[in-house]
Every structure is written in C-alpha cells, then in structure tokens.
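Researcher: I need the complex structure. Ligand is 2-oxoglutaric acid. Inputs:
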Amino acid sequence: MSSKLRLALVQLAVGKSKLDNVSRAVQKIKEAASEGAQLVALPECFNCPYGTQYFAEYAEPVPGESTEAIKEAAKENGVYVVGGSVPESEGGKVYNTCTVWGPKGDLLAKHRKVHLFDINVEGGICFRESDVLSPGNSYTTFDLPQCKVGIGICYDIRFAEMAQVYSKMGCKLLLYPGAFNMTTGPVHWELLQKGRALDNQVYVGTISPARDTSATYIAWGHSTLVNPWADVVATTEHEEGIVYADLDLDYVQKVRQMVPLGSQRRGDMYEVVTKK
Ligand SMILES: O=C(O)CCC(=O)C(=O)O
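Model: Output:
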C-alpha cells in the first residue's frame, strides 16, 4: 500500500445560486482529478452562502440534489470526495453536514457539525449558528487505502479534545472544511491548524470558500495543509483556486519516532475520555 496521497483542497467561489455553486464544485472535482488528486475536499457550505439567514432556505435532505451531484462526480472521476458541508434538513431540524464519497459513489461517512459557532467578539463578529442549526453528536472517520481520516467542520477545529479523540482512533489526517472570517481568520485559522497537527502529530487540512467581499459573511480563505511537524505544506490567499498537496503518511511515523509523545504521555495523570 502506498504511503503517498495527493490531496486537493478546493477553495470554491460560493454565491447565491445553489445550482451554480454545485456545478462549479463538480467542475473543480473533475479538474482536481485530472491533476492526479486522489482525495478532493470542498469547503464548508459549498452550495450556500454562509449565514444563518440562508441555512433553512438552502437546506435539503442528505442525500439530496447537492450531495447526489458530488457523489456522481466522485464516481465519474474515480476519486474520494469530502463534500465540505451543506445545510441538511431532517425531521424539522437543520444541520451543517459533511458527506464523504468513495470512488465508486459509495457514501463513506456523514458528519454533522458538533460544535455550533456562537461567538460575540467585541468590535468584530457576532454569530449564532445555534439560532437555526442543531448540532451533531458523533465522531466521523473514514478509511482511505493510505490512512484513516477524521472530519470536523470549522468551529470543531477549536476543540482540541475532538482532534485528540480522532488521533487516538488512528487518524493520520484530519480535514476541516471551514469558513473563518476577517476577525478570527487572520489570527486563529492557521494557528489552530498547526496546533491540532503538532499536538496529535497528524496532517491537518482546512478548506475555505473563496472570499466574496460583497457577502454578509466574508470568508478568510487560506485553505491550507499542515504536516505533523506543523510546517505549511501548501496554502493560498483568498481567491478561488485549488490547493494541491502531496502527503507522505510515512512521515507521520517518522515525526512520532523523533518526538515520541505517544509513549511519553502520562496516562497515570490525565486522559481524554469519549462519552459518545
Ligand atoms: O471559529 C471561528 O472563528 C470561525 C468558525 C466558523 O466560521 C464556523 O464554525 O463556521
């Protein structure tokens, strides 16, 4: 089994037309596959502008029109796709949901954002996802031939425990479709990603929509892949584009040998415990 993985992070321009957003995403999956990507990841809310006023209007069941299109794109191009997220409607509730598709069009995983983004930064941003969204209650992983992958959505990245749980489950790559903003993005986006990577000695990828300065919520962009040493492997600014990154999963082992946190952890003093 190869230890090499070519990953594409699609920093998609997302506007008000769901149809355009989805067909653009499909086109980018095709483009990434033609460049040799084996795993293609889309941003949070790839089919919908990010904002509490939009989620109910754009919400659809899963599978539904947007996720079916992604499934077909995965199948047609023979790639794994981490389908960013869509507002998902089920049982009168709306979730922020990521679907993961295999190269044969099989649904490998579904993650509902666990930590809802409710913050109030003085002079900056106030946002309350919990006004309209419900949280998921489970961890989400899937297996690639190369490694196990853990999924979180945006605000989930701020919770170190979740990444630790994924690492304990054996994930060597964590992917966070996300849409940070112009207040928190410049200071926290890359730092959080590096923190999760360094603490857990894993690769961490973030995938943002492109920045649209006319939108009510202006995304930070900067889709990035960080390696287990906390080096930035590949990144970009805020325009639409595809970030390609070549991962070497053997490097995870190498870092863990050089800095053996796993065997030095003081299980007699502390422990991360899963309750669900
Ligand atoms: O944590 C942040 O600063 C941004 C989070 C966010 O935008 C989200 O969860 O969608």
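Model: Summary of the prediction. The pocket of 2-oxoglutaric acid is lined by residues 44, 117, 154-155, 158, 179-181, 184, 188 (CB under 6 Å).
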